[in-house]
UniProtKB/TrEMBL annotation:
It comes from Rhizobium aquaticum. InterPro entries: Bact_OuterMem_StrucFunc, OmpA-like, OmpA-like_sf. Residues 131-165 form a coiled coil. NCBIfam families: PRK09039.1-1, PRK09039.1-2, PRK09039.1-3, PRK09039.1-4. Keywords: Coiled coil, Membrane, Transmembrane, Transmembrane helix. This is Chemotaxis protein MotB.
Length: 342
């Protein structure tokens, strides 16, 4: 009876376990190949943008690292299974040795023992074949792990190259920004110099006029010098003043380099007295705009380039003198000239 129980214990079917192991290995290999193809696809798309390349490369490194850890775990499982197979093989060899001893000791059970030995030998050979296939799979996994490591190294190299290129690009951008700032500063200095020349010449021409003032970087003409009350058509005195201004602008325009994008801004302002609405202009907005436009059109008629003039109306909403006294209102009724950039 003891011998019968030993036979039942030694008869173990290992084949389903090996089939599951091989299926798992094949699935892992297919998964790795899919991940590798997807990784190549995403890597080829991610070289278009600097910041996206860096982020996606880091993400791929993390994914490949996780896959490497997963494959290491699978390799450990296969090694554990191989160790179990080797232990089973050792046990089978021990059984074979014990059966051989029993065969020598008792002739009555010799034929059965010999048959069992043959069966165990067959099982042993099958287990050896399975073990050899498992070793082959382990070797294949080792090769795949080495390939994954090489891929990770290539990705890290690409990441380092991208970072180096990014640093070089940042240095070039900083240098271009510095050069642009220097060029802008030079243009501003040139415009300031010509603005100073412009103001100097206008001071010489208009310094003896009591109704013309200089406020900051602007020349201020009182409206009474240029226009009739409530109107926007230049009177004879206004045309005479604007003719001098046009001649000064034309002379200055010849000296300013064409790359300096300058304009003369003509701003119209009124006082806060509401118009009656029965005249040509409905309100102070229209009156201030009409006066600025009249000045610009007259300057153009005297030869000033139209693309160097700008007309703007501010109505009563930009006063320079507070209060409602006649003096304050007179100061607020004005035409301002300012040399500036477009």
């Amino acid at each position: 009876m003891a011998i019968g129980r030993r036979r039942q214990q030694r008869h173990i079917d290992y084949w389903p376990g090996f089939v599951d192991a091989l299926s798992t290995i094949l699935l892992a290999i297919m998964f790795l190949l899919t991940v590798f193809v997807l990784g190549q696809f995403f890597l080829s798309r991610e070289i278009s943008g600097k910041d996206q390349v860096l982020n996606r490369l880091n993400s791929q490194i993390n994914e490949l690292t996780q896959l490497l850890a997963l494959e290491k775990s699978g390799k450990q499982d296969m090694e554990d299974q191989l160790a179990a197979l080797q232990a089973s093989l050792s046990q089978s060899e021990g059984d074979k040795s014990r059966l051989q001893k029993l065969l020598d000791a008792g002739s009555g059970i010799a034929s059965g023992a010999q048959s069992r030995i043959g069966q165990l030998s067959g099982e042993l050979d099958a287990e050896k074949q399975v073990s050899a296939r498992a070793m082959s799979q382990v070797e294949l996994l080792n090769q795949q792990i080495a390939a994954l490591r090489a891929q990770i190294a290539a990705v890290e190299g690409a990441l380092q190259a991208a970072e180096s290129k990014d640093q070089a690009s940042q240095a070039q951008i900083a240098d271009l920004g510095r050069r642009l700032n220097v060029a802008l500063a030079q243009k501003v200095q040139e415009l300031n110099r010509y603005r100073s020349d412009f103001f100097g010449r206008l001071r010489e021409i208009l310094s003896d006029r009591e109704n013309i003032r200089i406020v900051g970087d602007r020349f201020v003409f009182q409206s009474e010098v240029l226009f009739p009350s409530g109107g926007a058509d230049l009177n004879d005195a206004g045309k005479a003043e604007m003719l001098k201004l046009a001649q000064a602008i034309i002379e200055l325009a010849k000296e300013i380099p064409p790359e300096i994008n300058w304009v003369l801004r003509v701003d119209g302002h009124t006082d806060n007295v509401k118009l009656s609405g029965t005249g040509k202009y409905a309100d102070n907005w229209e009156l201030s705009s009409g006066r600025a436009t009249s000045v610009v059109k007259y300057l153009i008629s005297q030869g000033v380039p139209a693309d160097r003039l700008v007309a703007a109306g501010f109505g009563e909403y930009q006063p320079i003198a507070p209060g409602d006294t006649p003096e304050a209102r007179a100061q607020n009724r004005r035409i301002e000239l300012k040399l500036t950039e477009k």
